[in-house]
Amino acid sequence: MTQTEKSHIEQLKKAAELVRIDASKLTPAGYMKLQEDLYEFVHGAGIGIVVPIKNLTDKELRNWKLFPELFVKEAIDLLKEQLGKIAREEGGFTIQIKELSGAQIELRVKDKSSPFTTHLATESVQAVSYALFQHLAGSGLIGDRIQICRLCRNVFILGSHARQDHDHYCSTRCSRYAATKIYRAKAMLKAGKSIAEIAEQFDLDPKWLEAKLKKSRRSRRQRKRA
Ligand SMILES: [Zn+2]
Q: Is the pLDDT of residue 191 over 60?
């Protein structure tokens, strides 16, 4: 993994955390951190944000490294929607940014001894969406590394080192909680409950639970034989 890929993956992991935040419940300091994180997410993808000055607060006019408050909710909702769609897709797909408005393409050169770079700047919400695309494309990750947690249904990013044949959860908390649920599900299965009943009680996908329970029975048999 290159340094660039690593930084894209870090931004993707951060985005998966950002979409879980309820912005209306943040303290002023927490909210400002969210604005900084969103700015970093966009800036880190090499994308600029076009915002009419009238849409900026006084604080944002003084500190331009803040994502504009006016667009925070919309941007987070879109990020959540797109990450969820990417994680849920079973095969190939295309996602578009509709009607790229206010887009500007710039050619830049720092000084006469520097190379040229091109730079796209768009309206705030579209910039977040395009940044997501750029981080994904630059991350070197394959499609199925964007996953939905079996337990809490949050989107999370599975690092490229993680084994694909193992079950993964968004957090150690969910992974421990899953182990407890499966342990209890096994006991209930023994006591005569059906998989459908158990899945409903624990709010789990029945197919997945069935595979889980079968797998653990199989591995027990294999251990006995060994
Ligand atoms: Zn989870």
A: yes
